[in-house]
Amino acid sequence: MVPYRKDLTEKLLMFIMKHDARDLISADALEHTDWSTFLPFVRYHGLHSMLYPLLKPFREHIPHVHYASFHKSYFQAIAFNVRAKGSFMKIKDLFDGNGIQLVPLKGMALIFDIYSSHPSRPMCDLDILITDSDYERAKDLLKQIGYIKNVSDDSEHYWRNEQMHVSFGPRDGTLPLCILEMHWQLDYTRKYPLLSDLWHRVRTIPDEGDEIVTLSPEDTLFSLALHQRRFGAPLQLKYAFDTALLFKKYENSIDIDYLISEGRRSRIRSALYALVKQCSFFYSDTSVERLLKELHISTLRKNCLDAMIKKNTFEIQNNTKQLFATLHLFLFDSWNEPLFYMLNIPYVQFCKYYGLLPGQKYSRFLYSLRYFYYGIGLIQLGVQKLCFLLRGEAEKR
């Protein structure tokens, strides 16, 4: 077995795009792949479930245990997405009947759109967007169909005012319902407007005799870009692949001028650039090239993002927290925003980042010492960079 191979990874991603593996992958390449290393990679990037239909013609060249893993992941994703779609339609009908407008977000929105013919994109919950003024009514309506808040009354204020969404889960006996995250804004409130025309730009798409109100392709791209700032798996290719499919489907109608102007007005240019740059590894057209060129982010920010994306996209990630913290600095259009957020990080997010339990007394104590955490982290990073530079100089000699 050869070790992990970037060339095979890129080819596998390409044939997800093309839905045809035969002209890209040879049986010999598959037989000499270290699947035990490759599988964690595609799981990290959220692509595992989408590979099964494309690897099916090559099953005899893949170890049975690994082929079975793709098979299981594919049908689990299909089953979850059917369940999530059923939950969404139930909520939609209830909200429509009570005059509350909603749109699906992220995975659910994309299942109705670019994945409608092959709904194997993985999701972990159901996201919807409503208006802030409808939150209390929507919360009461959700109780009628078996949903309860997944947050306490004490912490609801934090999620309402700091994170702009609240999680809901099914009561006992209502298992067909999926975990729901109800949003009323795509990111936390700032001093400047964020996608102020979003609700005026919604559209309808057909689905099995029904009509689904969803975000425009451009605002869907912004929602994916903003999601990169959330703590999770940095540089996850699932979102870059979503972006590629959006550009592919709407190549003749996507409004690049709106993406550029609204990206500047809402200060999302850097996050959008990072998303589209990663997408360009396996899909590019004139719209993608123009957008990357005309977003006009600073040279320093652009060079740093380019280097991080090139270095980390096809590598096995061993320290996702460090990568997220470093990348986070460059996903904003100014330096003060991410620095201010890190210095004043909400307590719940601090606990999530460091793997602490919010209810424990020691967690609150450690939160009070967060500046010490950051100082030690900066020193460690500085020492690492200095050692790297010194090692490079020594090798030159």
What descriptive keywords fit this protein?
single chain; 397 residues; 7 strands; 57% helix
Descriptive account of the structure:
The protein has 397 residues and is an alpha+beta fold. It has a domain at 347-396. Helices cover 57% and strands 7% of the residues. The protein contains 19 helices and 7 strands. The protein has helices at residues 6-18, 27-31, 35-44, 48-55, 64-96, 106-112, 135-144, 153-163, 217-227, 237-249, 256-265, 269-279, 286-294, 299-312, 320-328, 336-343, 347-354, 361-368, 370-396; strands at residues 103-104, 126-129, 147-149, 165-170, 180-183, 203-207, 210-214. Strands 1-2-5-4-3 form a 5-stranded mixed β-sheet. Strands 6-7 form a two-stranded antiparallel ribbon. Helix 9 (217-227) packs antiparallel against helix 10. The model has no long low-confidence stretch (mean pLDDT 85).
Give the SSE layout.
Blueprint: H1 6-18, H2 27-31, H3 35-44, H4 48-55, H5 64-96, E1 103-104, H6 106-112, E2 126-129, H7 135-144, E3 147-149, H8 153-163, E4 165-170, E5 180-183, E6 203-207, E7 210-214, H9 217-227, H10 237-249, H11 256-265, H12 269-279, H13 286-294, H14 299-312, H15 320-328, H16 336-343, H17 347-354, H18 361-368, H19 370-396
Parallel strand pairs: 2-5
Antiparallel strand pairs: 1-2, 3-4, 4-5, 6-7
